[in-house]
Amino acid sequence: MEGMCVQGKKGCVHRIRKCVMDLLLMAEEDQELAADDEEGWEVMGSDLCLKATFLYCDLNQLIAAAGAREEPRKLQALADVANKLFAYLEQAVKRRSMASTQDCYKETAHVLQQLMAALMPLH
Fold it and tell me: 18 to each of 54, 108, 110, how far by Cα in Å?
């Protein structure tokens, strides 16, 4: 069997979409997090890191499996969007300012929408 099986690919796309939706919901829910809520920041940071890990693994599998079948330009666009997403997620975890984190979330939400659009031809 060549590359990733169809079920594996669908599973990756499903998990990516689920993580994207969870991250978008987190952006709305975490607006109430107080700047001095150290435990809340730790939970949010851990949750972001966990979701980013799942996203990284699934995106890596999806891009690697697409290989020669997909147009290199599409794969590069997906990789670029993923890299941008991980940079914004990292910034969101490092910042302890709610205003800065919300700004980062706005950028992340835009990149997540780009990611969803880039996934459409791959599912």
Answer: 10, 15, 16
**Quick check: pTM over 0.85?**
no
In this prediction, residues 59-81 reach a mean pLDDT of: 77
Q: What is the 3-state secondary structure (H, E, C) of 36-104?
A: CCHHHHHHHHHHHHHHHHHHHHHHHHHHHHHHHHCCHHHHHHHHHHHHHHHHHHHHHHHCCCHHHHHHH
DSSP secondary-structure letter at 123?
-
The structural domains of the chain, with segments of one domain joined by +, span: 6-122
User: In CATH, what class is 6-122?
Assistant: mainly alpha
Residue 3: left (phi > 0), alpha (psi -120 to 50), or beta?
Answer: left
Q: How far apart are CA 87 and CA 100, in angstroms?
A: 14
pLDDT in tens, 5-42: 667 778 888 888 888 888 777 766 655 655 556 777 77
Residues 66 and 12 sit within 8 Å (Cβ to Cβ): no
Secondary structure of residue 116 in the 3-state scheme: helix
